[in-house]
Design a protein that fits this description.
The protein is an all-alpha fold. It folds into two domains: about 130 residues, no CATH class; about 130 residues, no CATH class. Helix content is about 70%, strand content about 5%. It contains ten helices and two strands. A two-stranded antiparallel sheet has the order 1-2. The longest helix is centred in the C-terminal third of the chain and has 29 residues. It is globular and about 60 Å long.
Length: about 270
């Protein structure tokens, strides 16, 4: 527990200033985290991080994360750069690679890399887009992380106090339905308090509560998806870069679901 607390404090001291100031340094930090997250997934699948296939995956990851508005120091015209074109190019290269190595790298490996890269790359790209390229970006990021943390906290304490019915025992044996509901309730309470002191884009309180319920549910789904990955590949944590907490994906699994959903519904 002491190690977890110490790691959390150090991580926040490093991460929070980047979030507050935003800009290029924040984008570079997110690129680094996303790259580590993708490597963690490929390591689960026993794909070498120095292989040709992983290099293609990382290249695709970086291209997918390019903000549509362009970096502060570069602007890529939409007519010149289409993310769908890059995805198709990498698909062709990965499939060609399966032939070159005579199926030591298989179709299954290629599919895993593509799905993992889109999942991680697009999820973290929404983090950059939200912070640097929309109005109220900082407030929105703070809101998202408060909802995620409140959901985790509420699920833990409600689950311990009232948990009886298992939520998904084959994937995460300790999670309960009561805990999941408690996570949503605490997330809504925290969101209401946050909205009173820092309203986001003039959304009404009702909208904030409804969006928070959705965000809390999808945050828990994101956490379960990461748990399913680890259970399927027989690993305890996605990585060990954060002592006591695991890897990057262990800490950002909920965010990778929440931010895209908020963009899809037009909240961000």
């Amino acid at each position: 527990m002491k190690q977890r607390i110490l790691t959390a404090i150090v991580a926040l001291i490093i991460f929070v200033p980047f979030v507050i100031f935003g800009g290029l340094l924040f984008e570079l930090l997110v690129y680094i985290m996303a790259t580590i997250g993708l490597i963690e997934l490929m390591r689960m699948r026993e794909i070498g991080k120095y292989s040709v296939s992983s290099a293609l995956g990382i290249l695709l990851l970086w291209m997918l994360m390019l903000p549509s508005a362009g970096f502060d120091f570069i602007s890529i015209p939409e007519a010149f750069f289409h993310k769908s074109d890059v995805i198709m190019l990498v698909v062709l290269l990965l499939l060609s690679y399966t032939v070159l190595v005579k199926n030591r790298f298989s179709f299954d490996h290629a599919g895993f890399i593509l799905l993992s890269t889109i999942y991680v790359g697009m999820g973290f790209s929404f983090l950059i887009e939200t912070r640097n390229y929309i109005d109220d970006g900082l407030a929105t990021i703070v809101y998202v992380f408060l909802v995620i943390w409140a959901t985790d906290t509420g699920a833990y304490f409600f689950g311990r106090a009232f948990g009886k019915k298992k939520l998904w025992p084959k994937i995460s044996p300790n999670k309960t339905v009561e805990g999941a509901i408690g996570g949503v309730i605490l997330a809504c309470i925290v969101a209401v308090i946050f909205h009173v002191f820092s309203p986001i884009q003039h959304h009404s309180m009702l909208v904030m509560v409804l969006v928070t319920v959705l965000a809390s549910i999808f945050g828990q789904i994101g956490d379960l998806v990461e748990s399913a990955f680890k259970r399927h590949y027989g690993v305890k944590d996605s990585g060990d870069i954060l002592p006591g907490h695991g890897g990057i994906l262990d800490r950002f699994d909920s965010m990778l679901f929440v931010l895209p959903v908020l963009h899809f519904i037009g909240f961000v």
